[in-house]
Design brief:
By secondary structure, the chain is mainly β. It is built from no helices and 20 strands.
């Protein structure tokens, strides 16, 4: 059974179709089929050890909740807004059903995985990708202008991923390191359903040894602004310290939508650190420094 949002229940009856001669003015049901477009990252095959996700899984395995708004095209007035409804069925697509709806043009704005994310109140329904500088979620968006009329009662919309995925691999991290603070500077802060990005922001995340081994760190990150670069900063803390005892040199990289970015940090056995960045299909060394 399709996951159906009974999206609009009008308080006033919209033309009840009692007269055959008025059938073209009658209300009718309209169905929007929602699909997930970006199930795998574009470049996942570049990384040995990462397996592509099965693309035939249920919708909820990629997008666990949906939010959407329907607006009148001419006025921009919202007809209905639904927030973070969980997807519970096992179908590969989801249906939004608008029952007893009158003919007209509307704008539908959909997003997924927004439970822990923020939404702005500005008219173009932008999504805040890193609320308060936090990682946020793996947000998906989609939308379209819909013409509701009796000869076209079905429409399909694809959801696209808004962020990239940053992986940081560390080898030979000393046991004295108990926490690693991450800051990623200069990434986009907002997007709309058509993936028009705007605003610049920074993202912060703290990793502790209690949570992981500090050998594989990850971050859902919004893309780097066009023709610019992002800066990754890492700070290393010892146990119970409030100040880091070491900072990594700035790491320059570009985050791309629906792509994996990767950084390797190797503690050399003879002392020192090498930092490698994956870009344009290959690894390049960005830093090679000795530790005193």
């Amino acid at each position: 059974m399709k996951f159906a949002y009974i999206g609009i229940l009008l308080s006033v009856c919209l033309c009840s179709c009692l007269k055959e001669q008025d059938k073209d003015k009658c209300s009718f049901d309209y169905t929007v089929t929602v699909e997930v477009k970006d199930k795998n990252y574009f470049n996942i095959s570049d990384f040995v050890g990462l397996s592509p996700v099965d693309e035939q899984l249920p919708f909820r395995m990629y997008v666990r909740d949906l939010s959407y708004s329907l607006l009148e095209q001419t006025t921009g007035n919202p007809i209905t807004t639904v927030s973070a409804q969980p997807v519970t069925h096992n179908d590969q697509t989801t249906s939004l059903i608008f029952p007893s709806f009158k003919e007209g043009d509307y704008i539908l704005d959909i997003s997924g995985n927004t439970i822990a994310s923020s939404r702005t109140d500005i008219p173009d329904s932008r999504r805040i990708l890193h609320p308060n500088g936090a990682e946020g979620t793996d947000i998906y968006v989609g939308g379209d202008t819909l013409s509701f009329h009796p000869k076209a009662t079905n429409h399909a919309i694809e959801l696209q991923r808004t962020k990239g995925y940053l992986m940081i691999q560390l080898e030979g991290v000393p046991d004295s390191v108990s926490q690693i603070g991450l800051q990623l500077q200069n990434v986009y802060g907002e997007t709309d359903p058509a993936l028009n990005y705007a605003v610049k922001t920074s993202v912060n995340k703290l990793f502790t040894r209690e949570q992981s081994s500090l050998t594989n760190l990850s971050l859902y990150a919004a893309p780097t602004p066009a023709n610019e670069e992002s800066i990754l900063k890492l700070a290393f803390y010892s146990s119970d310290a409030t100040r880091p005892f070491m900072y990594m040199p700035d790491i320059v990289l570009k985050i791309k939508r629906n792509e994996i970015s990767s950084v390797k940090i190797n503690y050399k056995p003879e002392g020192g650190i090498e930092i490698w960045v994956y870009a344009d299909g290959g690894w390049s060394q960005q830093h090679n420094m000795d530790l005193e």
